Amino acid sequence: MSALSVDSVQRAEQTPDERLPYAELGMKDDEYQRVKEILGRRPTGSELAIYSVMWSEHCSYKSSKVHLRQFAAKAPKSDALLVGMGENAGVVDIGDGWAATFKIESHNHPSYVEPHQGAATGVGGIVRDIMAMGARPVAVMDSLRFGAADAPDTRRVLPGVVEGISSYGNCLGLPNIGGEVAFDPCYIGNPLVNALCVGLLRKDQIKLATAPGPGNKVVLFGALTGPDGIGGASVLASATFEEESQAKRPSVQVGDPFMEKLLIECCLELFAADVVVGIQDLGAAGVSCATTELAAKGTGGMDVRLDLVPLRDPSLRPEEILMSESQERMMAVVTPDDIDAFMAICAKWDLPATVIGEVTDTGRLVMTWHGETIVDIPPGTAADEGPVYERPYHEPAGQAALNSDDAARLERPTDLRATLLSLLGSPDLSSKEWVTGQYDRYVRGNTVLAQPADAGVLRVSEVMPGATETNRGIALATDGNGRYAKLDPYAGAQLALSEAYRNVAVTGARPLAVTDCLNFGSPEDPEVMWQFAEAVRGLADACKILGVPVTGGNVSFYNQTGSVAIHPTPVIGVLGVLDDVRGRVPSGFTGEGARVVLLGETGEEFGGSAWAHVEHGHLGGLPPAAVLEAERALATVLVEAAAQGMLTGSHDLSDGGLAIALAESCLAHGVGCTVTLPGGDPFTDLFSESAARALVTVRPEAFAVFAALCGRHEVPYAGLGLTGGSSLTVEGVLDVPLDELRTVHEGTLPAIFG
Amino acid sequence: MSAARVGVVTFPGTLDDQDAARAVRHAGGEPVPLWHADTDLKGVDAVFLPGGFSYGDYLRCGAISRFAPLMEQLIPAARAGLPVLGTCNGFQILCEAHLLPGALVKNAGLHYICRDQRLRIESADTPWTADYTAGQEVVIPIKHGEGRYVADAATLAAVEANGQVVVRYLGNPNGSLNDIAGIRNEAGNVVGLMPHPEHAVEELTGGPGTDGLGFFTSILKSSLEKLVNA
Amino acid sequence: MARVIVEVMLKPEILDPQGQAIARALPRLGFSGVSAVRQGKRFEIELDGPADEAALSDVRKMAETLLANTVIEDYAVRVEG
Amino acid sequence: MARVIVEVMLKPEILDPQGQAIARALPRLGFSGVSAVRQGKRFEIELDGPADEAALSDVRKMAETLLANTVIEDYAVRVEG
Ligand SMILES: Nc1ncnc2c1ncn2[C@@H]1O[C@H](COP(=O)(O)OP(=O)(O)O)[C@@H](O)[C@H]1O
Ligand SMILES: [Mg+2]
Fold first, then answer.
1. Could you give the strand order of the β-sheet that contains C34-47, starting from the edge strand earlier in sequence?
2. CA distance A383 to A60
């Protein structure tokens, strides 16, 4: 065969027995058989390319689907939900005609291979998901996990990841308003890089990934298509054509944030001009995914001339074009009447845009390559009817032993001052300024709270020119705790949700909706699958009780080295709304003479705690109980107290318990405090990690009303003392000057990463 | 009398234009959007070149932007006395366009830095800083990867001797020579600084307060004075 | 004392947004006749001793592990002269 | 079709923190015998036509006005071969 001829449908019919390298593309025998049944013949190379990517774990959620259904089945009633799971991102109503869309996604493996580009393209991908909903992206967050902080590979991976997120996000002009950085040896070789983006739009401007209307044009716009991330596809190209793969095909993608910035502004102008019928970002499976999904959700058919796709590398084969993961591309469906206006706007932003096809009502996705038909499939079979597996699962063999290895057996410290400083300077709890200082948190001028606040808070007004003024704000937090989830994935997922929910509530925002990124090992390992099933069940149950629906998210499997998986790590993002953002509560102590009040109940809970981890390198027992009703009551109190202006500051309690919360509250604005512990065992009071707790400062004159509010909602409260002075003083227990706290807190990451 | 009109330029990749326009409004002026591909300054009283990553800042920050059609109008206008303020990327563009001496290179620490920065206003003698007093200390955010001001020894000596340093860092964040955070041209109408006064004009939004507002109130006053005297 | 040059360029199949941005700007600046631009890095390494085989092999190792990211970049080592 | 190389380096009197950071890292990585490192840029310019005098003069102008900032950088143009 000549280099230019292709594996056409006609050829496939004539050569029914030709063997295609489906196994090399990760497709199982029975999956390949199903493709043959669907088509009534063997697939062409291009068709195989489409099915193999669309039916991959990443795109089809084949191992997770049966579990994820619980998010919808158990979803609490929510008037706020405008678009639920299944779209590029969920959309929630935040009032005054405004809506917010947000989603978190992983880019774990690419960030290990090439930290800078892997993390950068992770940000790029999630931002395009948000754009595809018709929104203006307004902020990003990043949730990061690495191997031990002092491990040599962490010194390679962490700075690269941070630089990638920083260079890409900063260049897009999206403020970074929060995230996490955690370390654990289990993530060496499998760092977790989860990026979240939030966007704002008018309620009536939601765009969907759909291609209705026969005769409408299909436009590919943005970056040119190159040989990016198609290591697998070249197998196909060369195997089909019995020739050596001519060029090396990289598996690493390089991002171009400048192109993405143009794409954002261009899309917003296209939306404003109302010249877009349907739109889809090009993500993992590139053109395959965009065409099959748009066609499947529209009138059912689409004709595409694949040879019209503008290329960066003219040697690309059709199979490779279909699988290319080149970044910064979008696909839109446009009526013939609007096409000129559409093209003019792309030209204004200097973006290549090409009509590559047309919507049809044939129910078939048909692609040609220089006149020959190379794809002819029912698009829904690739997009929606992928395989679904009920993977076997069972509790891990060591789980019972792990859970009975109670942290109660660990030796308790006598010098609590030393314990506080040791925890405060540990990599997990130390200041993340080394990371966050590389992120622009100010751009666009709507950032109300960012690091070191518990949640990022944004002002909503001024996003869209001409839109109704509003004083509303949104708050976002992400949290996860792999140690808790390892001990009990059901509770661990609930605790991650609880913490993010609480972090939103401490700013005064009412939690509204959830996005999740589920990072696990191999789904083919029944023990990992058990962790996954438990985590999903826990999260779905907790969402129901807290009244916040899951609106979308992402599953990342195969985070493991050999047979050793990472800790199961559900990372949860919660979005909340402030009716009046001017009433937001800042983090920590903001001034002298305020009443320091501890909310919630403290038990003796040290399983999976920061203390057990840092001081004993111990992980065992059970995590703190997830107390969802108490969590909900606490949030109600925090939101009401904020709305009534009773609070001058607040901070949630999480890793490291009250001790760390006090220290962070002092450091936030350089205001000390003198407090007395509630009266139990000082070690437990200070370091236990019981959930549903927060530390607030109350205006002295409002204390009585605040106490009554707590009483009404049955939230235990304890006045601990007053803010003021230049040290953290816990009467009779410890006394540390703020300068010393600061040195310990801020020194750790710079000492390691320079 | 109508408010002073301050042009805010948008290049492909400009990021802080919305903030700059808001800051002009807060100070009581009228922001006028200027598009890089236009050749018309729309009769504005002053021009603000905001921060960002114009053209991705791929070659050198500001290197490609300075050739934009709008710049072909702006450069002679600035030479003729039109007040121009460039912050961050805007500062870099002004240096690349040789409207200001010296250059901005990678931070000494090699990292991008975003932080609230203490500064000293050195010169209240420009249309952009008249509302400050020389020696006044302010806190304004910085956010840049390439903000280290450099110039050869002769240029640096001249800049100092002419009193062209407008703002200095207190606690040098990036290795800038002589702690220089901002400078002006000899005439004084063109000012460039790395800090972002447009991010410090409101109590609510993040940042360290409203210390940056003075740049905007200054230019509105001096534009009005010009109108009155004309 | 010798000087060795290490040149690091993105592999040809890897997107080079920097070079692309320059190439796109050139026509606007009045330069025609350029079909592509790629941007890379150039390191000048001053050696204490001569650029003998041992030194060059050291520089090659340096390029491989530190100066270039061989996942996406190629490098070349040459002695200035 | 010819390829022209433009090399851009910071002037010697301008501090090069990137080069310095590399030089400082080398001993830790087990490389000795390097007294200094400087980092610059390298551009590969693909011409539509041959690298004749006219084309080279164009590239020189490009280097002077765009690729290098002559306030702080020096450049060199050479034909690959
Ligand atoms: N990777 C990151 N990106 C952005 N912000 C981060 C990141 N890591 C931590 N932060 C911010 O730093 C602050 C402190 O983080 P952390 O101690 O984890 O908070 P918390 O204990 O409240 O969850 C928070 O404002 C958090 O959002
Ligand atoms: Mg918190």
1. C73-79, C2-10, C34-47, D34-47, D2-10, D73-79
2. 8
- Name which residue sits closest to atom 6 of ligand 1, judged by CA: A179
Q: Domains of chain B (ranges plus CATH)?
A: 5-229 (3.40.50.880)
Separation of alpha carbons B165 and A548, rounded Å: 54
CATH 3.40.50.970: does it fit domain D2-79?
no
Give all strands of the β-sheet with A136-146 in edge-to-edge order: A81-83, A90-95, A98-106, A192-202, A136-146, A176-183
Which pLDDT belongs to residue A619? Answer: 98
pLDDT higher than threshold 90 for residue A70: yes
pLDDT above 50 for A285: yes
Tell me: cis bond preceding A452? Omega within 30 of 0 counts.
yes
Judged by CB atoms closer than 8 Å, whether chains meet at B58 and C28 is answered as no
Q: Please give the pLDDT value at position A1.
A: 40
The ligand 1 site (C-beta within 6 Å) comprises A 142, 144, 176, 178-181, 432, 435-436, 439, 451-454, 479, 503, 654
Residues of chain C contacting A256 with CB distance shorter than 8 Å: 15, 17, 20
b/e per residue, A397-427, with b = 16+ CB within 10 A? Answer: eebeebeebebeebeebeebbebbbbbbbbb
Residues of chain A in contact with residue C72, where contact means CB-CB under 8 angstroms, are 114, 117, 250, 252, 254
Q: Is B55 on the interface with C (CB under 8 A)?
A: yes
C16 vs A117: CB contact, 8 Å cut-off?
A: no
SS3 A185: helix
Structural domain count of chain A: 1
Q: What is the CATH number of the domain that holds A247?
A: 3.90.650.10
The token pair at B229 is 């005297």
Please write the tens of the pLDDT for every residue from B172-188.
999 999 999 999 999 99
All residues at 6 or more sequence positions from A37 whose CB lies less than 8 Å from its CB, including other chains = none
**C-alpha A231 chain-centroid distance:** 26
Strands A217-222 and A353-360: antiparallel
Domain coverage including residue A320: 9-62+208-383
Q: What is the dihedral of CA B196, B198, B203, B208, to 10 degrees?
A: 0
Tell how far CA A131 is from the center of its chain.
Answer: 15
Domain positions in chain D are: 2-79
Over the stretch A499-508, which tens digit does the pLDDT of each residue have?
A: 999 999 999 9
Q: Which residues of A touch B145 (CB under 8 A)?
A: 167, 170
Confirm whether A262 is domain-assigned.
yes
Separation CA D3–CA D44 (nearest Å): 7
Helices (H), A132-256: 152-172, 231-241
Structure tokens at A80: 């706020």
Predicted local distance difference test score (pLDDT) of residue A231: 60
The nearest CA of chain A is from the CA of B18 a distance in Å of 6
Report CA-CA distances (Å) from A606 to A387, A409, A586: 42, 10, 29
**With an 8 Å Cβ cutoff, are C16 and A254 in contact?**
yes
Instruction: Indicate whether this model's pTM tops 0.90.
Output: yes
Mean of pLDDT values over B136-164: 96
* pLDDT for res A86: 78
Evaluate the CA torsion angle A486, A491, A494, A495 in order and state its sign: negative
Q: How far apart are CA A326 and CA A375, in angstroms?
A: 21
Average pLDDT over residues A198-206: 92
- Looking at residue A239, its pLDDT comes to 45
Q: Write down the pLDDT at residue D45.
A: 96
The whole-angstrom separation of Cα A130 and Cα A200 is: 9
Q: How far apart are CA B14 and CA B62, in angstroms?
A: 11
pLDDT, position A469: 80
pLDDT of A656 over the 60 cut: yes
Instruction: Output the CA torsion sign for A131, A133, A134, A135.
Output: negative
Spatial strand order in the sheet of A647-652: A647-652, A694-698, A595-599, A717-723, A673-675, A727-730, A734-737
